[in-house]
Amino acid sequence: MIVNIHSNGKHALRQRYFVTGGAGFIGSNVVDALLRQGHEVYTIDDLSTGSFENLTAANRSRYHYFFEQNVLDFDWDGYLKAGDHIIHLAAAVGVDYVAKDSLFTSHNNLNVTQHVLEKCRQYRCSLLFTSTSEVYGNHDRHFSSEDDHLCMHVTHGGRSAYTLSKLYGEFLCQEYAQKYHLQITVLRLFNTIGSRQSNSFGMVVPRFIQHALRNECIAVYGAGDQTRSFCHVSDTVRAICELSKSSSSRGEIYNVGNDVSITVLELAQYIKDITNSSSEIKLSPFPEARQGDKDIKNRKPDISKILKDFGWQPEVSWQEAIFEIVESMKQQNVMKFA
Ligand SMILES: NC(=O)c1ccc[n+]([C@@H]2O[C@H](COP(=O)([O-])OP(=O)(O)OC[C@H]3O[C@@H](n4cnc5c(N)ncnc54)[C@H](O)[C@@H]3O)[C@@H](O)[C@H]2O)c1
Question: Who lines ligand 1 at CB under 6 A?
């Protein structure tokens, strides 16, 4: 059902969004944003890495419906209608989590993407799929652009299952968009950070902050000169919401991320400084399960395509983003779990 709504003083149309992985870090922020825009939101998440608490604000809305289910088990045929929007974020994510069981990672990510694409075809819905900067793999360039050749370092073990599943997901999205004339968009997300990001699955920023707040050793893997760029979740969410309803992005791939990068060593030092921590910063070898990581040298997006087509660019600096996470983690009293 589409009805007129009044949102932030502007007239808009209330539309129906299905957000897979909507109880996760990025997903829950997407759900909140869509509800703020006055839309009706169906969240499907099996809570494998997401959490019900992330949906505290969303659950106060009468337009939010939560289904604690695997995407494969959800009753799509009972709910989905032509013209609905699907934002597909559900995936096994997190460097430690995905490496723990490569076959699970690969099956989970591929099966849900194939399933959602089929539903999208059947009901002629729009779909936005979140891929990853990891598909660029190992290269010597300073920027990664959508048309670059991709370069997988290895195809076995570790996080390759994650990268390959996302790459194949991209391929399927483009084939479905072309063959069935569907409105499908792929976003290659670079590191996104923000206060709901879990520190349980090896994400670098929450891990460093947690150690700094506890005055524990901050382990920087490799030489620490690998570069990363960090985009605040509000900026990533703005791109997701904007492109999920755009018909001009059909079958297209867009980078989404912050185009200012820093070395991982600089990141550790910055976090140590702003937390007034006495932590030692120590260069350490990569853990066994993450040996491939050492070769991903530079990760910085070229965002000229999304800037040109949609006027999107990040508004929050990586320093502001980190400051916000530090404050939020202090409030959560991480110290008491030491
Ligand atoms: N955070 C980043 O920096 C980043 C970077 C690149 C790409 N991405 C992509 O963005 C998306 C969201 O990532 P995130 O950082 O919010 O991770 P997250 O782990 O917080 O979110 C993923 C969510 O999917 C759910 N999920 C997994 N498999 C499911 C299944 N079969 N059925 C139902 N729910 C399932 C999990 O419970 C979780 O809530 C992922 O697709 C990820 O690949 C994220």
Answer: 21, 23-27, 44-50, 70-71, 89-93, 108, 112, 130, 132, 189, 191-192
* CATH code at position 125: 3.40.50.720
65 is known as an active-site residue: no
Domain count, the chain: 1
125 located within any domain: yes
Structural domain contains residue 244: yes
Atom of ligand 1 nearest to the CA of 196: 20
Indicate whether 34 belongs to any domain. Answer: yes
CA of 24 from ligand 1 middle (Å) equals 6
Q: Of all protein residues, whose CA lies closest to atom 9 belonging to ligand 1?
A: 130
Alpha helix segments (H runs only) across the chain: 25-36, 76-79, 95-100, 102-123, 160-179, 204-213, 233-244, 264-274, 304-310, 318-331
Residue 225 lies in a domain: no
Structural domain containing residue 64: 3-193+230-259+300-316
Beta pairing partners, 11: 6
- 70 closest CA partner among 86, 90, 95: 90
Question: Which atom of ligand 1 is nearest to 166's Cα?
Answer: 43
Q: How much distance in Å is there from the Cα of 56 to the middle of ligand 1?
A: 18
The minimum-distance atom of ligand 1 relative to the CA of 134 is 6
Say how far apart CA 90 and CA 300 lie, in whole Å. 24
Catalytic pick from 136, 162, 176, 254? 162
Which of 193, 236, 202 shows the shortest CA–CA distance to 328?
193
pLDDT by residue for the chain (338 residues), tens only, comes to 445 555 454 556 899 999 999 999 999 999 999 999 999 999 999 999 999 999 999 999 999 999 999 999 999 999 999 999 999 999 998 877 888 888 899 899 999 999 999 999 999 999 999 999 999 988 878 899 999 988 876 667 678 899 999 999 999 999 999 999 999 999 999 999 998 887 777 789 999 999 999 999 999 988 899 899 999 999 999 999 999 988 887 889 999 999 999 999 999 999 999 999 999 999 998 776 666 555 578 889 999 999 999 999 999 999 999 999 999 988 886 555 44
